[in-house]
Amino acid sequence: MRNLEQALLDHELITLRVIGEWLGIDLTGTDKATAVVELIETLAQVDLVRELEYLDPEETAALTDLVRQGGRSPVGIFARDHGEVRLMGPGRLEREEPWLDPASPTESLWYRGFLYRGFDQTDEGTLEFYYIPQELLHRLMPATPARPSPAFTADEPSLRPVEHPAEVLNPPTDAVDDLTTLLALAQRTGLLPDRLPNLDGLLMNPDRDRRSLLLTLATEMSLLRRSDDRLRPTRAALDWLQQSREAQLRALVDAWSRSAWNELRHTPDLVIEGENWQNDPLPARTALMDVLPADDRWYHQEDVIAVIHRQDPDFQRPDGNYETWYIRDQVSQDYLSGFDNWHQVEGRLLNFLIRGPLFWLGMVELSADIAPERAAYRLTPRALAWLGDEPAAADEVRVPLVVQPDGILLVPYNAGRFERFQAARIADPEPLAPGKPYRYRIVPSSLAEAQGQGITPERMLQFLETAGGRSVPVAVRRGISRWAEKGVEGRLQSVVVLRVGNAEILETLRTNPKTRDFIAETLGDLVVAIRRGEWENFRQAVAQLGLLLDVEGL
Predict the structure, then answer these.
(1) Model pTM score
(2) Is 224 helix (H, G, I), strand (E, B) or coil?
(3) For 300-345, what is each residue's pLDDT tens digit?
(4) CA distance 409 to 297
């Protein structure tokens, strides 16, 4: 921060004269530099400790607070506790004379020369501070009591263990399973981050925010890389897939702790607007993890949030300015500005961190009851090991996949993720069924895609035998071999069948420009196939020709 001379030079000349009157000197000249020299000389001789006796209790409390903070505090934070200084130009200062009736303790200290304002560089960027120049600060410190102990008093929020909830949500470990599915899809077709394919039924947890987090972490861990506008797996992905489940989860947690994925922009019930402001997601995680007790007892989430509100409320906005972010409540559509809305923004963010990323990554166990006064959590052994910098468990019992004679591959939940990834390269995934193994079906198109990636039929059979731990069923071996020799020998298609009463009607439909393009294939003298997705438009076109069609089973 600036020294005393620089601080005084930032003032208007009329303000220097007001400070001079407080110190008992008459600054009548018009040269600011001369006035600054006189003030510095006078301040050097003044007993500042004794001057504190002339301050009001509120002014003393404000100055003491600033000294305890090392002589500076962000403007927004200090103003929230002790008021602001009304900044005025020379003309307005002469008209209103604010020093005669200060609007706040801060403004009173400003016109008595104890407190100044300026910008300084911090880890969070350039912030504006109220500060005390070093020449004055070291003389004020002996008169300032030491900061009281942070121990809780009876009426302050604290973290006390609570009883085990009646019903709990066990910490999931399926983040690694869904990431395996995403890596497999990226290997087959590549993923467009902004236009993902329909993943309904393919993921253990279809939550879009969780999926966004997994893709972000995978990209930041270099498991996915962008190629031709698509995300595709890297060599590092293959290494990750072969790790134990606990090691994979640990890698995800490590990546999340430093990730650029922004929880605030995914917090439920908040609508984020505007592109001219941004927040750093890391301080929110740090503030939360600093408060969570490192034990396996249950705690209320409300208590966690209350403690952070008391100890470190400005973790997300270190300048203390709660007016510049454009955030609306999704239900009321009201803008949530001002510190009074802290619980509606920061409080919701902290709650989401616990019940979102920390839960998704298996770090916390949750109460099933989400009512604010009863919602609770506890850290898992996995989280305690991570906080204690203990290695993740490396051992894992893996079961083989099952190759069925009908070309279905069954991959149990506790099979290796690497084996499932490889299975997905040669077979199409089918929708998940709760409590059942993953299912993949070998079809000609999936075999063709695999061959296009350099996987020969011999390698496919070798993989199936190794991953299954037994000989491949004869029917599957024969099917892959026939496809390698002859290609596609049959195809099942879903079409709509049109049957007519005589050939003249069919000829009319084939030749009329309104209907002919809908006919996909002739199936007989009086039967044709209509493309399934176009049958309704076809029926409307036929009606315009005066022919009404019955519809059955559609």
Answers:
(1) 0.78
(2) strand
(3) 999 999 999 998 999 999 999 999 999 999 999 999 999 999 999 9
(4) 42
Q: What are the structural domain ranges in the chain?
A: 4-143, 169-387, 402-486, 495-543
- Give the Cα separation of 352 and 343 in Å (integer): 12
Contacts of 371 (CB under 8 A, 6+ apart): none
Per the listing, tokens 């200090």 go with 78
- What tokens does 210 get? 């969780």
Query: What is the strand order of the sheet 428-429 is part of?
Result: 402-403, 408-411, 438-441, 428-429
H helix or E strand, kind and range, residue 134? helix 134-140
Contact between residue 101 and residue 109 where contact means Cβ atoms under 8 Å apart: no
Q: Mean pLDDT, the chain, as a whole number?
A: 89
pLDDT digits (tens, 9 = 90+) for 208-241: 999 999 999 999 999 999 988 899 999 999 999 9
Structure tokens at 163: 């009883």
**CA neighbor of 130 nearest in space, from 70, 54, 51:** 70
Structure tokens at 425: 């390269």
Note the pLDDT of residue 226: 92
Vertex 373 angle, CA 335 and 210, to 5°: 60
SS3 label, residue 202: coil
